[in-house]
Hints:
7 helices, 2 domains
Amino acid sequence: xxxxxxxxxxxxxxxxxxxxxxxxxxxxxxxxxxxxxxxxxxxxxxxxxxxxxxxxxxxxxxxxxxxxxxxxxxxxxxxxxxxxxxxxxxxxxxxxxxxxxxxxxxxxxxxxxxxxxxxxxxxxxxxxxxxxxxxxxxxxxxxxxxxxxxxxxxxxxxxxxxxxxxxxxxxxxxxxxxxxxxxxxxxxxxxxxxxxxxxxxxxxxxxxxxxxxxxx
Length: 216
């Protein structure tokens, strides 16, 4: 074999190798979460065992914020409670205030988003004492390039309409919620319908128990 032939063979081999590397699917570190997996966990008495040692009672009342109840409050009632917004979003029906914003659908409040460092400044421990244990917990890879590296925990109370997210994994009881959403109370099936697409993405989300999410 001549040197020229060897170089051509080597070049072709390198091209094939690079093509194989670029076309290979990403490593699956976190498989998609199935709806059945979530349903099985939330009825498992051990799923929130560690949390129930802190507070064994459950809150059954729909959460509200500044007297505004998601799912029933109207835009007129919002104005009566908190006044006119600082501005309104041009993309969706969203009113933006200092420290929080409210989303409407057909003049009814569908979500309230409370920003970091606003007057809602609760630790995970405070949340558990006030609301009891969450219904389900998810951990997320929040980076743009998903690789299954978990960095945020979402404590979801779908039965009373609340989601508290903490930018850490695992978290500790003194970590503060950095993203809070209040929404109309839902059944598990209704909640899962809204997030089923997210659960299906690989390397993005993991269903976790209390003991996995919260450091000892």
